[in-house]
Automatic annotation (TrEMBL):
<dbReference type="GO" id="GO:0003824">
    <property type="term" value="F:catalytic activity"/>
</dbReference>
<dbReference type="InterPro" id="IPR029045">
    <property type="entry name" value="ClpP/crotonase-like_dom_sf"/>
</dbReference>
<protein>
    <submittedName>
        <fullName>Enoyl-CoA hydratase</fullName>
    </submittedName>
</protein>
<dbReference type="Pfam" id="PF00378">
    <property type="entry name" value="ECH_1"/>
</dbReference>
<comment type="similarity">
    <text>Belongs to the enoyl-CoA hydratase/isomerase family.</text>
</comment>
<dbReference type="InterPro" id="IPR001753">
    <property type="entry name" value="Enoyl-CoA_hydra/iso"/>
</dbReference>
<dbReference type="InterPro" id="IPR051683">
    <property type="entry name" value="Enoyl-CoA_Hydratase/Isomerase"/>
</dbReference>
<dbReference type="InterPro" id="IPR014748">
    <property type="entry name" value="Enoyl-CoA_hydra_C"/>
</dbReference>
Length: 261
């Protein structure tokens, strides 16, 4: 659990630094405070020579719900939030130590970007996934940089457009996660043991090889996609979509299906 006033729990054991998203009131959304604490703890983990890997996990039934819509709705125009999200995701991808995700709850929208930025991820049977941006009037713009290079294009055409929920087996099939497991801790044990055996140089350079295409996407597309995201979030449709979500109602554009006679 996080200390009072914090949204991130921390702990280190056997060479693994565990960072626990612990902001249940907003479903571990990427608030300004949570993002700042993630940066600070990643810096500490990078500077600690005894840390071989970072394990990212969560409390509650949600790994991460993506953008904090309460914060986003409070702004009348474009903000720097998309650029800040891109910076966070790139930091995880470029982090010189492996970042592993353990997921036992829901992952939505920008949370899928955080998950895709991790090097290895294991999800339990209670996990669900969805790209819900189109349903609130925006698009999965910034998160596409870590998501699309690692996932099946045909599957992403479906899930980006429909916002459907899918489970761990499907997430593994399309490449969004590494492994679906009945017991995530049991599945992670050999992974973490393997990382503990790696040298700092060996892990950093091996990671650099497998993240090359993802980092190229950030270098090429960050400006364009952050601008797109900011413009969409400032639109009338997005304001209606976010308001409808927070008020637990359908947005004005939703089409009700006629009953079958």
């Amino acid at each position: 659990m996080a200390a009072p006033g914090r949204t991130l729990g921390t702990g280190t054991a056997n060479g693994v630094r565990t960072l626990t998203l612990d902001s249940p009131h907003n479903r571990n959304a990427l608030s300004t405070r949570l993002v700042a604490e993630l940066y600070a703890e990643l810096e500490r983990a990078e500077a600690d020579p005894g840390v071989r890997a970072v394990l990212l996990t969560h409390t509650g039934n949600t790994f991460c719900a993506g953008a904090d819509l309460s914060e986003a709705r409070a702004h009348d125009g474009p903000t720097d939030a998309p650029l800040e999200l891109a910076r966070l995701l790139r930091t995880v991808v470029a982090f010189p130590k492996p970042v592993v995700a353990r997921v036992s709850g829901h992952v939505r929208a920008g949370g899928t970007g955080l998950l895709a930025a991790c090097d290895i991820s294991v999800a339990g049977p209670g996990a669900t996934f969805a790209f819900t941006e189109a349903r609130i009037g925006v698009a999965p713009a910034v998160i596409s940089m870590p998501v699309l290079p690692r996932t099946d294009p045909r599957a992403m055409s479906r899930y980006y457009l429909t916002g459907e929920r899918f489970g761990p087996a499907e997430a593994a099939r399309i490449g969004l996660i590494t492994l679906a497991a009945d017991d995530p801790d049991e599945a992670l044990a050999p992974v973490l043991d393997g990382l503990r055996q790696g040298s700092p140089q060996g892990l950093a350079e091996s990671k650099r090889l497998v993240t090359r295409e993802v980092l190229a996407a950030f270098d090429r597309d960050t400006g364009t996609l952050a601008e797109l995201s900011a413009r969409l979030f400032a639109s009338d449709e997005a304001r209606e979509g976010m308001t409808a979500f927070l008020e637990r109602r359908e947005p004005e554009w939703a089409v009700r299906q006629a009953p079958v006679r």
